[in-house]
Amino acid sequence: MLNIVDNQQEQKIAPLLRLGFRPFFLFGSLFATLSMALWLLTLKGVVSIEPLNGMLWWHSHEMLFGFTAAIIAGFLLTAVQTWTNIPSIKGGQLLLLVCLWFLARLLILSGSTSALPLAMIADLMFLPLTAFFVGQRVVKIRQYRNLIFIPVLVLMSVMNLFTYLPSLGFDAAWQSRGMQGMTLLVTFLVAFLGGRVIPMFTANGTKTTKVLPIKWLEMSALASLVFVLVLLLLKDVADITMLTAIVCLTAAVLHTIRQWRWRIWVTLNVPLVWSLHFTMLFIPIGLGLLSLHFFGASITLSTAIHSLTVGVIGGMILAMMSRVSLGHTGRMLHVGKLMSFAFFAVVISAIVRSIAVAIWPQWSIQFWVFAGCLWCVAFGLFFFKYLPVLSAPRVDGRPG
After folding, report:
1. Does residue 313 have a pLDDT over 70?
2. What are 301-307's contacts with CB under 8 Å, separation 24+?
3. What would the pLDDT profile of 337-385 be if each residue is shown by its tens digit?
4. Is pLDDT at 397 greater than 80 in this prediction?
5. Which of 42, 111, 192, 368 is the 20 to 30 A CA-CA neighbour of 52?
C-alpha cells in the first residue's frame, strides 16, 4: 500500500481507529459470537429476552444487518483507500460510524417499543453513510469501475427498511423479502469479489498459473443471482414457483462450472486460499437447495437460505477478515492451526445447518445447536487471535 497518510498525524490516532477494518472486524466478530450464543441459549430456554420485533426477527436481522453489514463496511472503507490512494475515514469520523452501529445494536436488543424510531434511524443510516464515504473517494478520481458497490449498499439499505415495515403496520411478508433480499445481495457481492480475487490469490498462494475469466460465464453467473433475487422478492405476489426453481437450478450449474475452473484441489495446503474456495462452493449448494425447495422437495426455504448465510456469507467473511487483517497490518499472509481450525469449523457449521438439516429434518433442533456452537467457535477464535493484531499499530511502522 502506498504511503498516502501522514504518519506523524496518524500516530496521534488510536490504532483501532486508523482504518475501517480494525474496529468493524474486531467488534463484528465479537458480535457474531455473542449474538449467536444468545440465540442458542434462548432456543434452549436457558435465557428469555424480548428484543424489538421478537427473537426470531432479531436473530435474522442482526446476523445480516448487524454483523454482516459491519464487516462489509470495514472491508469497503479499507479497500477504497487502496483503490483510490485517498485516505479513508479514521479517528473521529470512524468512531462516529462505529458508535452509530453500536447504538442501533443496543436499541434493538433493548426491546423497548419507544426506542423503535431511534433504532430504525440509527440502523438505516449506517449503510448509506458507508456508501457516502466510499463513493466520495471513488467519484473524486472518477474510478467508476468501483461504483458498483454504491447501488449495492443502497439496495441493502432498502432491504433493511423492508424488515421494519411489519412493525409499522405493513404486511408481514415484507420482513422475509428484506431478509432474503439482503442474503442474495451479499451473495452477489461475494460472487463478484470472489471472481476478482480468488483466481489471483490461488495463483499467488500455490505458485500456479492464474485462471483467466470467461466473460460470458462471469456475466451469466452474476446475472443469475440478480434473477434469483428478483424472483424471491416477487414470490409472494405471483405464482412463479416453477420459474424460480428453474432459474435457481440454472444459477447453481453456472456457479459450479465457474468455480470448478478455479481448481480448488490445488489449494488444499494453503488455508487462506482453500477457505475462500470452500465458502464459494456454498453458492451452488445453496442455489441447488433453493431449486429443490421450489421444485417441491421437503426442504424448507430457511434451510436453503442458511446454506448461503452460514456457508457463503459467514465463510467468506471469516476468510477475508483473516487475510485483510494480516495484509493491512504488515504481517505475512500465513495463519496457524487455530485459524485453520476456525475455517474448518465454519464450513462444517454450514454443512450441518443446511445439508444435514435437509436430509434429517427430524434432528433439526440438534443440528441448529451444533452448527451454532461451531459458528461461535470459529468467530470466537478470530476475535481472540486477532485482538492484538487489530488493536496494535502495523508491525512495519507504516500508516494503516
Report:
1. yes
2. 301/180, 303/353, 303/354, 303/357, 303/358, 303/361, 304/354, 304/358, 305/179, 305/180, 305/183, 306/350, 306/353, 306/354, 306/357, 307/282, 307/350, 307/353, 307/354, 307/355
3. 999 999 999 999 999 999 999 999 999 999 999 999 999 999 999 999 9
4. no
5. 368
